[in-house]
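Q: Start with the shorter request: fold the first protein.
A: Done. Sequence, then structure:
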Amino acid sequence: MTHDQHTVPAPGAPLVTRSPLGSAAQGEVLTGRARLSARLRHRRRLLIPLAVAVLLLQMAVAMITTAVEQTPTIDEPVYVGTAAVYLHEHSLRLNPEHPPLGKLFIAAGVAAAGPHVDRAYDGDQSRVGRRLLYESGNDPWRLMLWARLPVIALTLLFGLVVFSFGRELAGTVGGLGALALYAFSPDIVAHGSLATLDVPAAGFVLTSVWLLWRASRRPRLYLPLAGVALGAAVATKMNTLAAVPVLLLLAGLSVWHARRTAAPGARLRPLARAAVGAALVAVIAVAVVWASYLVVDPRLRWTPSSGEVPVVHGLRGLVTGLLPFPEAYRDGMRVQFGLENAHWEGFLFGRHYEGSLWYYLPAALLVKTPLGTLALWTAGTAAFLTIRHFRPVAPYLLLPTAVLLAAAMGGQRDFGVRYAIFVPMFGAVAAVGVLALRKRWVPVTAAALLAFVAVSSLRTFPFYLPYANEAFGSAARAHERLHDSNVDWGQDLGRLADRLRDRYSGQRVWLVYKGSGVPSYYGIHGSDPRSRPERKVRGLLVVSDSSVAKAEGRLARLIRSSREVDEVGHSITIFRR
């Protein structure tokens, strides 16, 4: 072999070649390669934030477009009206069944809109919201957009939490995949674009869990932050209380892991530190709840009106009385328990029923979740349970989700997947587990499923609220499977006004609308057909799909004897009689 030929290294040996070039020339070649490698690394570092920005930008466009085009949903006027009362009266008198923090975020948008507020008006929470939007000289379109923007901003920030969590578990590719599932989730886009409390509460729980996971390495930094996030969740919606025991257990677990290098004989010391860590998180969370009430009213004035707060007996009453929160919070819990005891109706897969079904939420999630997401959730969850490398993080992702879902399934109000909106949030992170499956086909399959999710989500734009996956007929047939905030939450009154004006101008309208909007404000002047003899109901019969789903008696007969001619936003059906 001549000196100018390359040698072939043995298997496993480093690649070494003989070259006719001198040592100086070889040095120049190596320097050039190093520079090229540095440039590639630099470009890669730039591409990562660019990819994150693109995903969040498309999500922001989807949410803002939805917020601009939708009229107030059923709950929004209550929260917006309460936020205005917080700003102008510093009073806790409205909406005690939900703590103040989420409404304080909404209040930031209301303050930016600068609406006229009738401080002398003393109606209940529904009437206050209606008066603010429609009877005080304000523009409800503009006011609702400003009220929704803070929730949109929070939803985007929670996307960064999803990306960071996923990247820590499965690298940059895992982080981007988790963010893609989050950003293209129709349910998160739908409810993240509304001035409601579901997404903020779930997002704060996820943030607390992520910080607790990080606390296993740096507990002194991340435990207090996790306590703040947990307190923010509890100060936004009371249903997050179900996760508190689990998160305190995880706080202790994180401290235990952080101190497991202690001397073998000092077993009590790590246990004591774990208990102190959990207590620290609890104390900070309680302080955040108190702070949210004090921001509204530093004097914590709270005098419930007669009959507003029911008496709660038994274990529920005992636990409520022991909570270390302001009296307004505890009374809000009692109001929630009272609502749970009220009479409710549900609708699932064409069946109208009274009460609740324990399997309602899993079934609704099956309909409302993209098929690709369901596949990735399943594979990722299996990976976290079976692959040794992922088992330490499994309790952080799966336990809070399971406990919150079990608590929600035990509720009496089958109104929508918004009660389980934490599932797509935690599921987006859990899906990164598929990357641990050491099979050649996994990356290609995962990418194909992500693309399927993106296409499914983009196809429903801008009708995210009534989304259903392709197996259940997409958004056009969602009303045949589900109702209420899954499909029809009063969001399409403005679109209905445009449709009636463009296609049915001058025709008689009979209206059964389920929502908080005021039809006459949008130029819709319809009579209630249920108050007239059936033979006199002629013209257009316009019915919200939730009312169609639960129609009985006269309304059911009117619908059966009518011909469907149009639909609006996949949430309102127009019949002709």
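Q: Next, the second protein, separately.
A: Sequence, then structure:
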Amino acid sequence: MKMRFTYLSGICLLISTFTFAQKGKTYEVKSQDGNIALKVEAGSKLLWSVQHKGQPLLTPSAISLQLTKGVLGDDAVVRSATTKKVNTTIKAINYKKAVISDQYNELTLTCKGDYGVVFRVYNDAVAYRFFTKKKGELLVKNEEANFNFPADQKAFIPIQWDYRGGQNFNSSFEALYHEITLSQFPKDSLAILPLLVEAGENKKVVILEADLENYPGMYLNYQPDGKGLKGVYAPYPLEVQNGGYNTINLIPTKRADYIAKTTGARTFPWRAIAISEQDKELLNNDIVQKLAAPSRIADASWIEPGQVAWDWWNSRDITHVDFKVGLNTDTYKYFIDFAAANKVKYIVIDGGWTPQLDLFQVRPELDLQQVIDYGKQKNVGVILWASWNAVVHQMDKAFPHYAKMGAKGFKIDFIDRDDQLAVASLYEIAAKAAESKLLVDYHGSFKPTGLHRTYPNVMGYEGVKGMENYKWADEDQPRYAVTIPYIRMMAGPMDYTPGAMRNVNQLNYRAIGSQPMSKGTRCQQLAMYVVYEAPLQMLSDSPTAYMKEKECTDFIVKVPVTFDETVPLDGKVGEYVALARRKADTWYVGAMSNWTPRDLTLDFSFLPPGNYQAEVFRDGLNADRNGTDYKKEVMQVSAGQKLTVHLAPGGGWAARIEKAK
């Protein structure tokens, strides 16, 4: 990593810092491009507010840390105010780009009482975090984090539901978006992050958190005036018991009257807002990566991203074979054969290979060592499903045991909590998995907050209402599918699990658990492999389905799972999305629409000068009637060309572009 820090005088970055500190205790920091202005007021309350090109985005909003003895931030006495200008780059690991430009201006307020607050202003975001330098242990009763807006604005709000064991703060962290005004926030509800607010003049504000370690995750609730949101946190668990879904969850049964028990000298999570003038800018925002702690794995060369042949979504629906399909050796050797033939790097053996709470009782019809060894011969790795409950109790023995057998990682499911102990557990699991050189894919998990940068063996997160819901639910997934790239995906990897080969319109849709289908078109499913970020990207349908659809399968398996560059092309939250990604010298383009058919003009100015050949998959003329209808064609494109493409209802467009030979 190259780093260049420039310390600026108060006149340059912080407007008359010490004069204002003495008179009104007001501090102002601007982004390096001058467009974003942060104002901090240190009076009876510590307030932050944000403007973009003179337009108020956040009005003064109080922040504080409430301890058992005192409130940090109230009646703050600022001992020093220091500033810093940073221009650096971050070499990304398994990300949507190879190098991240990290530019911000920083203000640090150090206050009487052994604490302070760091504020950062980027060209596309603002963030702050508390820090303490106290001795001994701290009990944090609550944290005040407010986001006040100048008006009752429309928002995309994911409301917590699907409570495990009927308990608040225990859920799957998967929710459709309530597209409502702030004042319409449902009573007695909490929102999960990220959350998007329309700020006027086409601007958007997305609320996120980052570097969440050994501390509870933040939910949001509405302010009584209907114009703001406030942070809410799960109280610290004192006692837990098995319960929830199939009694697989660890459900807190007794909680403390504080949210965190922690060391007195530490930094706290970043609270951030990302800002865009055009919706498509959100597709390339890196704020969570920038704020996350750097990698703690010195040598990450063993961490290999890749696509995954997955068994659970398709219920192992394999036909025309001479063995009984099930959770057995022959079935998974068949999955390995399919993966090897298509250069898919991994398979997952999902739930059922052991009891849900014991990782050492392998079902007798599955010779796991034989399957893993067979995968080695075929250059296909095996990833194993496990419940979080089992991992918490058995990882010290299970991780080295299965690593020695040759397993490549664990898909860890049914966490369904983000209190301090659950958050700390995910870091501990990542670290111990890394010691055994195992990958981790978190399911039933809260949103990413940067752990995947700190421990890059963490390759995936669910925390999204993904394609599994087609097995039991009838929802507006095509609209959700073009909303999450602007909101949920900003937090980090998103295991939506695309790849359905049964594609239908709303009229013909049925939720069938054993033979699921997707709403929208085949080309939308193909485009998801370009649009959705997932270093472990699933092929969710069955080998049989993919072998019947060889053209589409060949396209899917050629799409990388990490990239060197990302270029947003066009988009509107909840309506459509189009972007391009580069790996080495090859470009990939994906475009998706909700149920509204539309024509998009794609600008190929992202291509370097020259002529190119594009392999294109577009919606067929009858894709509105039958979602499987598509047209494959090869065309010549050139740098700077503008191409109009048609997207059917729930449609998509996908292309692989290489230099013409």
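Q: Describe the second briefly.
A: DSSP finds twelve helices and 37 strands in the chain. The two ends are 36 Å apart (CA to CA).
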